[in-house]
């Protein structure tokens, strides 16, 4: 489409108008579907009232997080992911704008990036059940930080030490900056796909073995403190680095070091949480096995003789034989 535009025509303006037209049309379609569902689709009536979540303030949430090691490790996972993905994504997009200064090229690359993210996420969704069944909760919880660690090392290494490798990349028609952009794209694609397919299910599964009070309060505390802290923590770190070193480019080495520390803390919390989670699950399974193995003792009504035997002697010796032996064997009550 852009190749067929005449001279002097802004391709980005044409693309922007087309995208905004699609957004408006889809927005109107959503409004129409919402109106139709509310007017013509009968909704099931709910007889049971929904349980209200406990309203916990910031200080109450912090106290609860400090008091429980299990919830504290789970909170570390949530905060570490939020800060890590923020640090990586902002640094990568700054290099992406340097590589693709044209808005059309930038939007084209981001379209391919979104497509690749969707394909990778769908594939990981299919593989996640197999990973949980074969390797367990602990391995699944460690995949996301491991992916961030490996791709993060490659991304920041290309940014900081990519110049000596320029002749090697030139043989493949690339520059160190373009290679860093591709590695950063892989990092964001795999980390986001692992987050949706493994990290989020692991986080929700971690609440299962907890008692009801800890489960509800822990989830509320993480929603109040950890989710906002994870989202804003990365931005605060970057603002501090920019004010200290003057620009994002100058602070890149330090951001890489901070990312390394956060991901290692994330892996440590995942390992600790895996030990506690496995122990709680084993205790839960043991309790279920004991409940299944428990046998209720039947109440045996007393006979006329008052001996409480299950059946009379002749019924136990229908063939005949020594009646005295048979009566002596059956007269003794059985232990049940």
UniProtKB/TrEMBL annotation:
Main location: membrane
InterPro entries: ADP_ATP_car_bac_type (IPR004667), MFS_trans_sf (IPR036259)
Family: Belongs to the major facilitator superfamily. Phosphate:H(+) symporter (TC 2.A.1.9) family.
Spans through the membrane: 12-37, 113-131, 143-162, 169-190, 254-273
Compositionally skewed regions (Polar residues) per UniProt: 322-336
Cellular location(s): Membrane; Plastid, Chloroplast membrane
Annotated membrane topology: Multi-pass membrane protein
Region (Disordered): 301-336
Gene Ontology annotations for the cellular component aspect, listed alphabetically: chloroplast membrane
GO molecular function: ATP binding; ATP:ADP antiporter activity
Keywords: ATP-binding, Chloroplast, Membrane, Nucleotide-binding, Plastid, Transmembrane, Transmembrane helix, Transport
Pfam family, one: TLC
Protein name: ADP,ATP carrier protein
């Amino acid at each position: 489409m852009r190749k067929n535009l005449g001279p002097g025509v802004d391709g980005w303006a044409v693309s922007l108008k087309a995208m905004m037209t699609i957004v408006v049309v889809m927005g109107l379609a959503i409004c129409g579907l919402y109106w139709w569902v509310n007017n013509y689709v009968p909704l099931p009536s709910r007889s049971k009232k929904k349980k209200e979540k406990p309203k916990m303030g910031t200080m109450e949430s912090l106290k609860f997080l400090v008091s429980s090691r299990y919830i504290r490790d789970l909170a570390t996972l949530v905060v570490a992911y939020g800060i890590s993905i923020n640090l990586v994504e902002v640094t990568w997009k700054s290099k992406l704008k340097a590589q693709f200064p044209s808005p059309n090229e930038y939007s084209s690359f981001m379209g391919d990036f979104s497509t690749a993210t969707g394909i990778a996420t769908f594939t990981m969704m299919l593989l996640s059940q197999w990973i949980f069944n074969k390797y367990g909760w602990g391995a699944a919880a460690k995949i996301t930080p491991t992916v961030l660690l490996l791709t993060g090392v490659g991304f920041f290494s290309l940014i900081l030490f990519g110049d000596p490798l320029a002749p090697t990349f030139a043989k493949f028609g690339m520059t160190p900056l373009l290679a860093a952009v591709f590695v950063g794209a892989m990092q964001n694609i795999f980390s986001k796909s692992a987050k949706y397919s493994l990290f989020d299910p692991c986080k929700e599964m971690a609440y299962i073995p907890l008692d009801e009070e800890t489960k509800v309060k822990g989830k509320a505390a993480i929603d109040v403190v950890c989710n906002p802290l994870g989202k804003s923590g990365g931005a605060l770190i970057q603002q501090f680095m920019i004010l200290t070193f003057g620009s994002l480019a100058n602070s890149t080495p330090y951001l890489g070091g901070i990312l390394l520390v956060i991901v290692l803390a994330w892996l440590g919390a995942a390992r600790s949480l895996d030990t506690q989670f496995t122990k709680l699950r084993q205790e839960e399974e043991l309790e279920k096995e004991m409940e299944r193995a428990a046998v209720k003792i039947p109440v045996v009504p007393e006979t006329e003789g008052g001996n409480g035997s299950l059946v009379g002697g002749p019924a136990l010796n229908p063939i005949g034989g020594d009646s005295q032996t048979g009566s002596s064997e059956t007269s003794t009550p059985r232990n049940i």
